[in-house]
Amino acid sequence: MAIYRNKVAWRGGHLGYTWMQNGVEMEFSAPPDLYGKAGVLTPEDAFVAASNTCYFMMVVWACERFKMDLVSLEIEAVGEVEEHLDRTSWFKRVTLCPKIVVKGKTRETVQRALALALKYSTINQSLKSELVIKPEIVIQ
């Protein structure tokens, strides 16, 4: 079983610093509208980015597995936060919009690869949020 570690330390106010086991270190903050600092990572940014980057890597892996000639891949992710009357909130939905360009494969094969990528996306399989995939597939 793989284990991933992270450490955070308070830097005053609504600012923190994080260290990831992969060697990345950076400041993070609450969002500016919640008294945080602009221009640094927020937990909300990290959540959406975790979903997006994990799915992205699994799409690359699935394209390799299906022996696709991948020309380009970009994925835009949108996380929708629902707020409750008691001021608690959660990410109700994460929408991933891959724009993928491949050569010499059918649209159905690309759709199968995208579905396989989601199945093997550890982060996305761990979320309780609704996951929506809205692909734009271009075959050359």
Structure description:
This protein is an alpha/beta fold and 140 residues long. It is built from three helices and seven strands, in the order E-E-E-H-E-E-H-H-E-E. It has two domains: 1-41, no CATH class; 43-139, K homology (KH) domain (GMP Synthetase, Chain A, domain 3), CATH 3.30.300.20. Helix 1 (43-65) crosses helix 2 (107-119). The chain is elongated, with a radius of gyration of 18 Å. The model has no long low-confidence stretch (mean pLDDT 97).
What amount of the residues lies in strands? 35-45%
| Number of separate strands | 7
Distance between the termini: 40 Å
The helix content is: 25-40%
pLDDT average, as an integer? 97
What name does CATH use for the topology of the largest domain?
Answer: GMP Synthetase, Chain A, domain 3
CATH class (first level) name of the largest domain: Alpha Beta
Query: What sequence of helices (H) and strands (E) makes up the elements?
Result: EEEHEEHHEE
Structural class: alpha/beta
Number of helices: 3
Main sheet record: 4 strands, mixed
Q: Could you say how many structural domains there are in total?
A: 2
Radius of gyration: 18 Å
Query: CATH homologous superfamily of the largest domain, by name?
Result: K homology (KH) domain
In CATH, the architecture of the largest domain is 2-Layer Sandwich
| Shape label | elongated
Q: Would you identify the regions where 5 or more consecutive residues have pLDDT less than 50?
A: none
